[in-house]
Every structure is written in C-alpha cells, then in structure tokens.
Design brief:
two-stranded antiparallel ribbon; mainly beta; 560 residues; elongated
C-alpha cells in the first residue's frame, strides 16, 4: 500500500505523514510536506482526485506553505489552484492528468485563459513564492476536446490574393499537419495570474487543449529545464502555444525543450525577458514577440535551436510597440507545411500592419538579429507600413540558404502577414527574395551570406529587395539572385539614402544592383563584382564610387 512516508523516502524530501510534516513546520526544521495520497488521492488513472488535491493544497496553505507531494502513478483531476508559499512537487513517474469532461472546467467570469473562457488545470492566482517542480508530468489530455476528423479553417485570408488562387490550402496537398477543429475547450493547462516569485523547473507539461503555460500580470519568474510538448495530438492542436507571457516582467526562461503545434514562446505586453539555451519546434513560430495590446521592451533571445514553420516573428498589429529586442546565436530551419497555420517558412518575419481598420499602430524599433544560421523556404522579411515605419533594425553576421520543397508550388510564393484587416495584405502573392524590406528607416545589414538551391520555382527572385525605405546601409553582403532571368543581386525601388559597401557578387550573378527612383545615393565602396555580368541597371548611378572591383569589361567608373 502506498504511503506518504514510503513515497518520500526515495525523493529526497522530508518523510512522514501530513501530521508529521506539520510537526516539522512547528519546530521550524524543514518545510512541511503534504502528500496527496494522505488526503485520499488514488493514482489509478480512473479515480477523480480533484477533492483530494484541494484538501492537500488547503492544508498546505493553512500551515503557511510547504510542499504538496505527488508520488508515482496517474492522477486524474479537474482544475486545482496553488496557494502562496507552495511548491507542487511531481515525483519521477507522477502524472497529473486533466479530466476529459468539459463540464469539469467551469466558465470564469473574467476571461484569462487564452483561446478559452474556462478554467485551466493548474492555476496560481494572486500568489507569491509559488512553484511547480520535480521530474513528473502535467498532462492536459487535449485530444477529447478536438475534432480529430475535421481540419480547422479560418477567415483571416482570401485565396484570391494568393499565388495559387482557388487551389490554395486545398486538402489534396495534404492534411497531415492539421490543425484540428474544436468546440469549447478547457483553459490554459498551467496559469500564473498576478503572481510574484514563480518557479517552474524540471517537469514535463504536455498535451494542452489551449496555451500550455501562461504568465499573466506576473513579476520575477524563473522557468528552467521544462519539457513542453503536444505529442499526444501529433502537434495538431491549434493555439497550444508552449509559454505565453502577458503583461509580465522580469522573466527568465532557460534550458527548455518545447515541441508544440502553435508558437513555442510568445511575448505580449511584457518587458525584461530573457530566453536562452532552448530547443524549439513548432508548426507556427519558434519565437513570437508582439501582436496586440501592450508595449514590449528589453528582451533577449540567445543560444537557440529552432525547427518551425516561421522562425523568429516580431509583429505589431495594434497600439503596442516593440523596442530593444536582441536575437543572437540561433540555428534555425523553417519550411512550408500544410494547413491553417500562420507563417510560410520565413526564418524571420518582422511586420507592422493594422489588424483592424482605423487601428493606431505602435512601432517596432531597435531590434537586432546577430549570428543566425538559417535554412529556409521563404524570405528574411521586414515589412512595415506607411503608418508604422520599422526603424533601426540590424541584421549582422547572418547566413541564409533558401531551399526547394515539394510544397513550394502549392503553398510557396506568398508573404504571410496575418492577422491584418486588409486581406489583400494578410496572405498574398509575392516573389521571394533572400531578404525583403519595405517601409523601413535606419536598416543596417552587416554581413549577410545568401545561397540558393539549384532548382527553385520561378518566383524566387532577388538576393536583397527593398522598397519605400530611408537611410539603409548594406555592408558585407555575399550572394546573388536566384537563377532566374531579369533579377538582381540587390534590387531597390522608391527609396532615399542608400550606401553599399564591402559586398561580394557570387558566381552566377547577373546584374548586381538595379534601382528605380532611388535618391540620395551615398557610397558604393570596396565591393567585389568581378563575378557579376554587370554592375548597375540602369548604368551610371550617382554614388560616390571608390575601391570597387567591377565586372570584366565593365565601363562604369570604379573610383580612385
């Protein structure tokens, strides 16, 4: 027969019953331990244990805090709430699994759970010094709440504006990636609401019916060494983000392995966030920063490995701004997938477009992408709008290889800026360069290496393409256009203030630089164009030219 003392003996926690744990609290020797089996929990995977968990947690709160211990076995339960000064400890082999019955998750008067108005499985509300630790598992039991025979659609795009028109997202191209459709479903699997000093460490948190973990209005949060996954559904549950930060600050996330259908880590209206040393896999974005409501400032993302549909996404869709964000030392692989997932294989997607007509847009400023190795199926994309010009972006020491796939003809050749009020700018046909920028000011590209698969569809185009820009410096670009006619290694339109320096045209380069209505041509210096067929189209630009190596037989001035 399982007892608390026998379970605790191998866990490195204080032994004994709940009464003995309370005696330890009174003596001040160690934190009290409340074992859920002492309060009637049965780890058989069939018995509903909600009341037993509630009794253990209330006893912990009445004692002024301690450890609620969950031993090996499977514990079926409905929603539970963690009080202050409480650590929920999941021992090795412990599985706390959510009820499969929707009626066990009450509708809440104020919506907190993203994508649901119902309670989640584990909630800490208005708590301090609260933790979920150990090496056991929290399982949201997501599959019963989804229609596994029906694929979710959406009205956030119009096929008329896509390259494939009526054939776009046709089931004939595959439905294996989902996402599944659904009706009402439980709230976020784990929620910390208005908490201070929260810790999540070591546990596995899986199969959430909506966002997996949400921190809402929290401060001083440490997330370390989690395994977050949606393997039970084959990562086909929509909106099952790994970690979502809303209106929170001072967040540290490290050493996590996150494999979900939707975004792995999403930041909304939060500040002072660090994410480091994580592996991420998603059918949407690896990292999402911004979308709607609330300013985002002072965030760093470094030492990451990402395999996703879209790699790094920085978006503004309403009045919240994104400022002072650094991405560095990241290896990522992105590609096209079937189904109604946001993203179209972009390694980076930075965009500012209104989600509703008449929306006052915030700004994206001072964002850095440094030392990124990417293999992808779409452009490195920076796409502003007249009402929200993207400012002070740096792309430094990045390498991008653009590859073909068996979905390029059925899904490729489009830009994805969902959600956007204007569906012609939500998901729309566009040729695919290596790097694209529009409505930007103060862009700096310093060291950008670009290569292409030999066989690509005709819609792959320029190496770097920019339009509607101001004050741009392209330095240290090494590459060429795709192997298609009429394209350039660098193509610029309708802009002012451009310098190009220290660039190298690669073998197979046709025209290196084409320009149309570009004023304030500043410096064109120290560029090696010996492998290009021609330097400029049209010829005779107004740059100050110096130190350039021009194509053999080129008559354009190279400078002194």
């Amino acid at each position: 027969m399982l007892t608390c003392g026998s379970l605790l003996a191998g866990a490195g926690l204080p032994g004994g019953s709940a009464a003995a744990a309370n005696a330890q609290l009174a003596s001040g020797s160690t934190p009290p331990v409340f074992c859920v089996v002492d309060f009637g929990a049965v780890p058989d995977g069939r018995t509903m244990n909600t009341s037993a968990f509630e009794r253990a947690l209330k006893a912990c709160a009445a004692a002024g805090g301690g450890v609620v211990y969950v031993g090996p076995g499977e514990y079926l339960t409905g929603p539970i709430q963690l009080p202050s000064a409480t650590a929920l400890y999941l021992a090795p082999g412990a599985v706390v699994k959510g009820s499969p019955r929707l009626e066990d998750y009450p509708v809440e008067p104020k919506r907190i759970s993203g994508e649901s108005d119902r309670a989640g499985l584990v909630t800490a509300r208005d708590a301090q010094n609260v933790a979920i630790i150990g090496s056991g598992t929290l399982d949201g039991n997501s599959v019963p709440f989804h229609q596994t025979d029906k694929i979710k659609g959406g009205r956030d795009w119009d096929s008329r504006f896509t390259r494939q028109k009526g054939e776009y997202m046709s089931p004939k191209f595959g439905t294996e990636a989902g996402p599944w459709d659904h009706g009402p479903r439980p709230g976020n699997l784990v929620r910390f609401i208005n908490c201070r000093k929260a810790l999540l460490s070591g546990v596995t948190i899986q199969n959430s019916p909506t966002w997996t973990i949400q921190f809402h209005g929290c401060e001083d949060v440490n997330v370390d060494g989690l395994n977050i996954n949606s393997h039970g559904s084959g990562r086909r549950v929509p909106n099952d983000d790994g970690i979502d930060l809303r209106e929170s600050r001072d967040i540290r996330i490290s050493g996590c392995n996150i494999q979900t259908g939707d975004d792995c880590i999403a930041v909304f209206g939060s500040s002072n966030v660090t994410v480091t040393n994580c592996t991420l896999a998603s059918r949407s974005a690896g990292i999402r920063v911004g979308y709607a409501a609330g300013d985002i400032r002072n965030c760093t993302f470094q030492n990451l490995v990402i395999d996703s549909n879209c790699g790094l996404k920085v978006n503004v869709r309403s009045n919240g701004s994104v400022e002072d964000v650094l991405f560095s030392n990241i290896v990522l692989r992105t590609g096209l997938i079937t189904g109604h997932w946001w993203g179209k294989g972009e390694p980076v997607n930075v965009s500012a477009v209104p989600m509703r007509a008449g929306t006052e847009l915030g700004r994206i400023r001072r964002v850095r992408f440094h030392n990124i190795l990417a293999e992808s199926e779409n452009a490195f994309l920076i796409y502003g709008s007249p009402e929200s010009v993207i400012e002070d972006i740096v792309v430094a020491d990045c390498k991008l290889h653009l590859r073909n796939s068996n979905l390029q003809l059925s899904y490729g050749g489009n830009f994805d800026l969902r959600g956007a009020a204007d569906l012609s700018k939500a998901l729309f046909e566009h040729d695919i360069p290596g790097l694209f920028f529009r409505h930007t000011r103060g862009l700096r590209v310093r060291g950008f290496q670009l290569s292409w698969d030999d066989s690509l569809p005709e819609f792959f185009s320029h190496g770097i393409e920019g339009e509607e820009f101001e004050d741009v410096v392209l330095q240290g670009f090494e590459g060429r256009q795709a192997k298609t006619g009429g394209r350039a290694a660098i193509a610029l339109r309708n802009g002012r203030g451009i310098s190009i320096r220290d660039c190298v045209a690669q073998q197979g380069c046709g025209t290196f630089l084409s320009m149309d209505r570009v004023s304030d041509q500043r410096l064109f210096v120290n560029n090696d164009l010996t492998l290009a067929q021609r330097a400029f189209d049209p010829p005779n630009p107004t740059f100050t030219l110096s130190g350039n190596r021009m194509p053999q037989g080129n008559q354009e001035q190279s400078g002194p």
